[in-house]
Amino acid sequence: MALPAAVFLLALTSLSAASAPDCKDLVRPFIPDDPKLVFGKWVYVMGAGDPKPYHKALESLKSSWIDLSPTSDSQVVTLRWGDNCFDRCISGEANATVSGITTTFRKNLSDHKGHLLQTCSDCLLWTDAFRNGDTTGRYILQFTRTGKKDPKDVEIFRKQVGCLSFPENFHSYDGKTELCPDDKQSTE
Ligand SMILES: *[C@@H]1O[C@H](CO)[C@@H](O)[C@H](O)[C@H]1NC(C)=O
Ligand SMILES: *[C@@H]1O[C@H](CO)[C@@H](O)[C@H](O)[C@H]1NC(C)=O
Q: Which Gene3D superfamilies match (predicted)?
């Protein structure tokens, strides 16, 4: 099968704090050797938004998961999510279209366009720009398989946030708020 994507890229080589990577390395889009490693369920652990109202909006995101699965079209990935937001669960599904390193999808009337960045192993780091009518903004979101995060990975994320000029007081999942139920568990 044609690899469904220089799509959602996952860092197979993890960035290490010891090597003190500079911004050029830290913000480089990542192409996965094996896109399969990107599929399945991911739990949101840290994020930042820009401009301020979008950064602030992440405060109301108490927990969040995403699920990525391939489709018969190598350019299309199914994105599902469950956001615990405004004290309720909001779930949804979108077809994400992959073209080169760029992936686009529509969520809650916003058109998102972004790519993955290098990150820790077993982590997924996504950044995008979105447009909703006249409104534009951007996000950076870090996910892990377990919803837990390693302190040294937090430090790398902090640097990446800084390199990309997102607000430095990024948000973190408290690790406690229950994830919204998934009525359609991934088979990945
Ligand atoms: C995704 O694409 C498939 C095939 O075109 C379509 O059947 C499905 O309704 C789409 N899903 C969403 C959420 O748009
Ligand atoms: C979806 O967008 C509407 C209008 O922009 C906004 O009021 C609402 O809070 C958004 N919902 C979520 C879950 O982000």
A: 2.40.128.20
